[in-house]
Design goal:
This protein has ten helices and 23 strands. The protein is α/β, with parallel strands linked by helices and 380 residues long. The chain has two domains: 79 residues, Urease, subunit C, domain 1; 297 residues, Metal-dependent hydrolases (TIM Barrel, Alpha-Beta Barrel), CATH 3.20.20. 56% of the residues are buried.
Amino acid sequence: MRTLVTGERLWDGTSLLGRTVIEIEDGLIASIRDGTVAGPNATLAPAFFDIHFHGAAGHDVMEATPEALAAIGALLARHGTANFLATTVTAPLDVTLRAVEGLARLIQKPDLLQNQRKIARPVGIHLEGPFLSHAKRGVQPEEHLLAPDIATFDRLFEAAEGQVRLMTLAPELPGAVELAAHATARGVRVSLGHSDAKTAETRAAIDAGAISATHTYNAMRALDHREPGILGVVLTDDRVYSELICDGIHNEPEMVKLWWRAKGEQRAILITDAMSATGMPDGEYQLGGFAVQVANGRATARGVLAGSVLTLDRALSNFIAFTGAPLEKALRLLTTNPVAMTGLHHGLGSIAVGQPGNLVAVDPAGKLAATYINGHAVSA
């Protein structure tokens, strides 16, 4: 199958170029050239990569079935996302072990997914729990939280057949620094979050290998001028990447601006933290194994925010509206930056000959105009 995609501009993950024609053959980019463009004022860019994502289309990733992942992937593709990290929530250990086993199978055998060449695909697992703070657990079930433990982590890593790419960890917990070093040595990126950590505890975990921060501001110790804590370190340490949920609910626009000024175009990452209600009408849905009520775009459990119903295309347009950032800088936050943080290159987050034909077309305000997954046009 041959597809031609045109744009007034091309942001290829590195540079902003002029009018472009991209030819895709059998799912791979065959050529990129200057050309005449007839159509809307759109910028072509790599399709998006969501590193913190729990579910959509009425399904949770912890179901770990081909049917669930196919439905999730179809909805994500319609909103510009080509790849994601399937993110767990804290649950009984045996439930999490079964989930990561199933997810690993589907990551390694994507042909098990229906329409797998036209949908977003998981490229790894993000463990959000069980090694989190009781004080800043959010909606994570308290009874299933565990102290950081290398043996437990190794059980999860082995059950996932090495597909764990990211783990959220509260650095103040006993054993957290040792676990951060161990996980990093095994190739897993460590993200600090769901944490009441003070400054010194946060710095110790970063020195041990932690590289990112999970949904910055949310489920974190508040900033204080005498004890900056985890948030003060995350915002000022240039070694650290930082996630943010840009839905206008989890963070006010002023805090998004502050985050952008602090982390900049090299270290900021937009995520969704989306749960199964994404793309669905208001009602009651599942996050992991517990009920979440969704009304007017807000997902809560027991009165506490419980993920979101955000999609990355909306996160992009919100971010530009809140900050005034140029499109080509904003695009980094859901393409090249998550790729750099995870180390999962292999055709993600950039556009080049020989790579999968996973592209988006967006207008100057960041609104999604079109998505192409392996060269297949996907309707928004």
